């Protein structure tokens, strides 16, 4: 693939998708971790300009999105009791930033 | 329908087909097939609407049963029961509207499997089932390739060569392989092993087993901070010493030994240096070359990988020789025969790859939460941190709560999964030998609790834990006659205890 850097819109879309799929984890700790990771990774790389670097970050993000999609479904299939820090209602689908 | 009519029908059908052009018959068939398939698919979709894909695991039952057996057991010792049962009523926060599953803070016992690790492993339980040692077909090659990738990731974390990584069933097996294997290989000329008093049980027991085989073992003492003395180590090394085995990070108190100094000394004295890095691998920076480590044990389930797999680093230059404890087909350089478990190996490899990728953010996260937890806990009166405050892995925090019995505190903290020490001693009421080695008395050792923080811990959990511990320590102390005396300013050491 040629090193065409992703557009701003594509990057934003990827970020939204990552947040959305992280939010679907039924497991509290995994949900919080992947939310934190998505936010931190995008914050860290906010000012990356280099096309090749952007391209590789974008590809990595897409791979991660695939994992989140598959694993959040598994997390919804195999569920466990809620943790003592988790409210029983409104789990998972908190408004995201 | 009789047989003859059906045959007749068939032959009529074939006549019809031959009358029409072939292609149109095919289209008719295809469209009919498609229709029947799509209705089947619709049925399947309907089914999944009724039958939930979710399968819920109720862990509360196990918790209740365990609590019952524990309560029954504690009735045999009345003093433990009195504080224990009343504390149990306070084991959960009053707040309803929240879940009941405990917060997991026992990261030294094991860690949750990272979903990215599971994602890698699933392939090997579905399609990639080849034996990695089959070299005559693609099934073997594809699995083997993934295993070698995993080996690269695992080696990279400690700056080793992938050829120096041997897969085992875990750190217990790696430690046994080293202590038994190295000493047996050199038994003709060398008969002495050095280790420490604060090692994990598997090292201590393997060393004891070698005493039965005629070896002499020196168990080094540690100071009140949990650190060994370099001077004592140097004095203990003899011409017939074949192995020095000192753990990198202690599993109970999180203290880090000075690996680099030990490595330099062992290299200078030409003694093999082994370190049990089950708690250190991926958590503190380790470079086997810079630190002159000859052998190093790793466990996958301490780094968010699957349980039942680990590795042993065995240096190739200068070569370290050992006698395998498992004989067989000669896999893993002949040091550990037996077919590898590709799912476990690649899961372990992915866990190591994630360590390489996430190391700095993991450490920053763990350190931040750890500082918050330590500050919160130490702000309670009469608490102290066990082990060196400087030479430590921040994710392992061991705190003593004076005038509280550790077991009662753990019973009163059923909403937090903690341990009063290592997993093997938490089952018994025996106080920790590690804390004893630090010079703590029984009472102090009994009132200690270990907190483990990891990649998936959250700030919210830490806040909850600080609040819960503060409340319940206060509650349990109010029940304690000792605490009353302390409040009245009586020096407990001045009391003459009757009895024993
Ligand atoms: C320091 C240390 N060594 C060895 C082990 C045993 O590891 P494994 O469970 O992989 O056999 C542990 C874990 O309990 C440990 O903490």
Automatic annotation (TrEMBL), chain A:
BP terms from Gene Ontology: iron-sulfur cluster assembly
Location of the Complex 1 LYR protein domain: 9-66
GO cellular component, one term: L-cysteine desulfurase complex
Pfam families, per database record: Complex1_LYR (PF05347)
Family annotation (PANTHER family): LYR MOTIF-CONTAINING PROTEIN 4 (PTHR13166:SF7), PROTEIN C6ORF149 (PTHR13166)
Family indicated by similarity: Belongs to the complex I LYR family.
Name of the protein described by the UniProt record: Complex 1 LYR protein domain-containing protein
Organism: Zygotorulaspora mrakii
TrEMBL record, chain B:
Domain Aminotransferase class V residue range list: 103-465
EC number: 2.8.1.7
First-tier enzyme category under EC: transferase
Record carries keyword Metal-binding: yes
GO terms, biological process: [2Fe-2S] cluster assembly; tRNA thio-modification; tRNA wobble uridine modification
Tree of life domain: Eukaryota
Keyword Iron applies: yes
The entry's keywords: Iron, Iron-sulfur, Metal-binding, Pyridoxal phosphate, Transferase
Catalytic activity: (sulfur carrier)-H + L-cysteine = (sulfur carrier)-SH + L-alanine
Gene Ontology MF term list: cysteine desulfurase activity; iron-sulfur cluster binding; metal ion binding; pyridoxal phosphate binding
InterPro entries tied to this protein: Aminotrans_V_dom, Aminotrans_V_PyrdxlP_BS, Cys_deSase_IscS, PyrdxlP-dep_Trfase, PyrdxlP-dep_Trfase_major, PyrdxlP-dep_Trfase_small
Cofactor(s) essential for the protein: pyridoxal 5'-phosphate
Annotated Gene Ontology cellular component terms: L-cysteine desulfurase complex; mitochondrion; nucleus
PANTHER family the UniProt entry points to: CYSTEINE DESULFURASE (PTHR11601:SF34), CYSTEINE DESULFURYLASE FAMILY MEMBER (PTHR11601)
Function: Catalyzes the removal of elemental sulfur from cysteine to produce alanine. It supplies the inorganic sulfur for iron-sulfur (Fe-S) clusters. Plays a role in both tRNA-processing and mitochondrial metabolism. Involved in the 2-thio-modification of both 5-carboxymethylaminomethyl-2-thiouridine in mitochondrial tRNAs and 5-methoxycarbonylmethyl-2-thiouridine (mcm5s2U) in cytoplasmic tRNAs.
Family: Belongs to the class-V pyridoxal-phosphate-dependent aminotransferase family. NifS/IscS subfamily.
HAMAP family xref list: Cys_desulf_IscS (MF_00331)
Stored NCBIfam families: PRK14012.1
Protein name: Cysteine desulfurase, mitochondrial
Organism: Zygotorulaspora mrakii (Zygosaccharomyces mrakii)
Lineage summary: Eukaryota, Fungi, Dikarya, Ascomycota, Saccharomycotina
């Amino acid at each position: 693939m040629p090193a065409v850097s992703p557009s701003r819109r594509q990057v934003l879309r990827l970020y939204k998708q990552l947040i959305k799929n992280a939010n679907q984890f039924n497991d509290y700790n995994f949900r919080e971790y992947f939310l934190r990771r998505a936010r931190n990774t995008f914050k860290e790389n906010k000012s990356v300009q280099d096309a090749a670097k952007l391209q590789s970050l974008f590809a990595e993000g897409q791979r991660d999105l695939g994992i989140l999609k598959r694993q959040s479904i598994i997390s919804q299939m195999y569920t466990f009791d809620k943790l003592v820090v988790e409210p029983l209602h409104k789990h998972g689908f908190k408004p995201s930033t | 329908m009789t047989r003859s009519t059906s045959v007749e029908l068939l032959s009529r059908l074939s006549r019809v087909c031959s009358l029409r052009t072939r292609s149109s018959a095919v289209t008719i068939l295809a469209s009919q097939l498609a229709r029947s398939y799509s209705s089947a698919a619709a049925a399947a979709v309907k089914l999944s609407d009724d039958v939930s894909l979710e399968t819920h695991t109720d862990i509360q039952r196990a918790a209740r049963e365990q609590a019952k057996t524990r309560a029954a057991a504690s009735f045999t010792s009345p003093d433990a029961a009195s504080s224990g049962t009343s504390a149990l009523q306070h084991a959960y926060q009053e707040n309803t509207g929240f879940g009941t599953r405990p917060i997991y803070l026992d990261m030294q016992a094991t860690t949750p499997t990272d979903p990215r690790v599971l994602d890698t492993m699933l392939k090997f339980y579905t399609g990639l089932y080849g034996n990695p040692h089959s070299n005559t077909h693609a099934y073997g090659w594809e699995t083997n390739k993934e295993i070698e990738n995993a080996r690269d990731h695992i080696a990279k974390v400690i700056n080793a060569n992938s050829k120096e990584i041997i897969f085992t069933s875990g750190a217990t097996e790696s430690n046994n392989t080293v202590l038994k294997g190295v000493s047996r290989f050199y038994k003709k000329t060398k008969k002495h092993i050095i280790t420490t008093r604060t090692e994990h049980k598997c090292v201590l027991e393997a060393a004891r087993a070698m005493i039965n085989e005629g070896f002499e073992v020196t168990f080094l003492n540690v100071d009140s901070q949990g650190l060994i003395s370099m001077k004592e180590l140097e004095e203990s090394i003899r011409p017939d010493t074949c192995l020095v085995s000192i753990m990198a990070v202690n599993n109970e108190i999180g203290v880090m030994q000075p690996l680099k100094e030990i490595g330099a000394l062992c290299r200078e004295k030409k003694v093999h240096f082994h370190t049990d890095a089950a708690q250190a691998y991926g958590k503190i920076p380790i470079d086997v070359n810079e630190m002159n480590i000859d052998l190093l044990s790793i466990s996958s389930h301490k780094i968010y990988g699957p349980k039942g797999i680990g590795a042993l680093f065995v240096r190739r230059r200068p070569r370290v020789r050992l006698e395998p404890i498992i004989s067989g087909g000669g896999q893993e350089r002949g040091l550990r025969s037996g077919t590898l478990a590709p799912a476990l190996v690649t899961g372990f490899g992915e866990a190591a790859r994630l360590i390489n990728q996430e190391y700095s953010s993991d450490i920053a996260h763990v350190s931040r939460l750890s500082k918050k937890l330590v500050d919160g806990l130490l702000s309670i009166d009469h608490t102290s941190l066990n082990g060196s405050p400087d030479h430590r892995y921040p994710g392992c925090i061991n705190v003593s709560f004076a005038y509280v019995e550790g077991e009662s505190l753990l019973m009163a903290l059923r909403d937090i999964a903690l341990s009063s020490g290592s997993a093997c001693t938490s089952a018994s009421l025996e106080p920790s030998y590690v804390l004893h080695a630090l010079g703590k008395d029984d009472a102090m050792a009994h009132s200690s609790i270990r907190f483990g923080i990891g990649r998936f811990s959250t700030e919210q959990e830490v806040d909850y834990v600080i609040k819960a511990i503060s409340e319940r320590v206060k509650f349990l102390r109010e029940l304690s006659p000792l605490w009353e005396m302390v409040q009245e300013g009586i020096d407990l050491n001045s009391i003459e205890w009757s009895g024993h």
